[in-house]
């Protein structure tokens, strides 16, 4: 009976979904203390209380126990956290319990502590406890994954890259680092998506596959979401095609991620075509991956952002026809569609429909209706909408206040908008950057520079973090006066905050340069035009004309040609390329403290600045032949293109690498790797293997090997294979097995970097 009871409790510990962290099936429990009937019964009672969420009674029960084992220590830690005890204090109590009962802490204890710190503690605390874990027990893959996340939260991409690389190259029998699993790669890919670095997210996916690790639909979906967040539907659809080519079945989450890319790009045609393919695929091949409510809400959002309120309503009707029940998001999106189109009456009508359907409007719905009036400059109607919001028991949000200030600005009542903002500050209302941005921009257009700077100072004093729009607005204020030094200082402050310049940033700088005397114009504009051509920003027609006016047609054409030839051009000048890093404007400018901002900087602008984009932080982007795109609003592709992204994959058109070519190819040698029949579909590896064989053949014949070691054994640039191919005579294809391809990827990955 005792044995059966012990087995039952252990089974509960493994299978119960609400088991405390660290007690999962992957944890090997050491036989430090033999279980007794007392501890076994205690485990069952404590576990049941934890499952019920009664942490206080569980803690009382555990603290009164006279015998402990490692599982009870884990439960004690979980109960302490559940009753509000800090993670560090709970960890100390758990260690004291181990010492009092002669129990050596094992990996499950540290996993539990790290998981709690991951949720509530700073990333530095996670890394500190990982160091303690390394000193006490072997580090598990779960713990290493939490450490990866901590590095990425600190934006220390170099440390994350080094940890992932060392996990991939883990020596047999080594205690640290542990081998990676799918979650290791997914953690990095998701973090890169959040950091607006989708190309690097995809490069991690490629490295994962090349090294022989299996990428699941979750991994591909995380990569698709990274492009979706940057409004790049063509790239999101391309990754979906890549997933289908790998014979993986996308699920609803995956298709919705692609839909969100079209919605973010304000492309209703692409979203509609993607959803149609989604529906057809669900009917024919994947009945378990049918479109859901989120799918149709996302289509409505694409229509709303694309200025198509009638199509948003049609998507709503289609939602109903599918038997789905609309929620608050469905109605709020319909309201927003009409608000964006400036139809306040229709927006209010949908707000009334929402109430009639028995769905209480939330702040998002009220804000959408209020914004419809604000767009028309009808401040009185906007105020009435806010009054109705309060009457319904919904508290105004920071967005509500921004909308009200915008309504007053639209009505031309700048002084009233300023007074309203001051009243909100005095009342201690929660405000956001858009509230101040609207006023700063309006003051700039009215030529009221001191008032714009005063609004910025009030923003800092209120501890509201400025956005890129804030600095662009200030730069535009200075540009109108031809104050290039102040405009550059504003842009420099944005760079210190970690913001990469966008097209509005460059437009402000160019406007400031054009206001300068003719003798200074070209000299001050050259560095900004060069930075634009080296950035991710599209070279719009307006920016192109401004650049040509500032530099002269011939000089600008020559500069543009040089960037194209060197592979350093911007997104619009390189249709199939992307730059290695998002450059910041490296202008020598004084510290940016506008008039009246003295003393306020410490209040709102003292957060640690992100690393300069050009700083070597351990990440080198992998060059690919994939098509370029832009980070902002992408040009809507035709509906037929969206259809092709799912139906049938076409072989990609080969493109010549445009990365800078070395003066001579570097020898790439790989000893001891058998080159046999391949099952890998990675054409890049095959091409590289051919180049390796060609280099070896050239050496054997007494040829002069190329000099230089900048690319030796490196995956920093996918153009290495094309560099070798251009310089050497490539023999017939040398196939690779999967194991050989994996070894090749890891061997060449000695310098693999994420940033």
Task: Describe what this molecule looks like in 3D.
- The protein has 755 residues and is mostly helical.
- It is built from 36 helices and no strands.
- Helix 4 runs antiparallel to helix 5 (87-100), helix 24 (433-445) packs parallel to helix 26 and helix 28 (503-514) runs parallel beside helix 30.
- The protein starts with a helix and ends in an 8-residue tail after the last helix.
What overall form do the CA principal axes indicate?
globular
The rounded distance between the terminal residues' Cα atoms is 58 Å
The quaternary structure here is single chain
* Class computed from helices, strands and strand pairing: mainly alpha
Radius of gyration of CA atoms, rounded to a whole number: 30 Å
Q: How many helix segments?
A: 36
Please report which band the strand proportion falls in: under 5%, 5-15%, 15-25%, 25-35%, 35-45% or over 45%.
under 5%
Question: What's the average pLDDT?
Answer: 74
Number of strands: 0
Helix content: 55-70%
Mind describing the biggest β-sheet? none
Which residues sit in consecutive blocks of at least 5 with pLDDT less than 50? 1-37, 574-686, 696-755
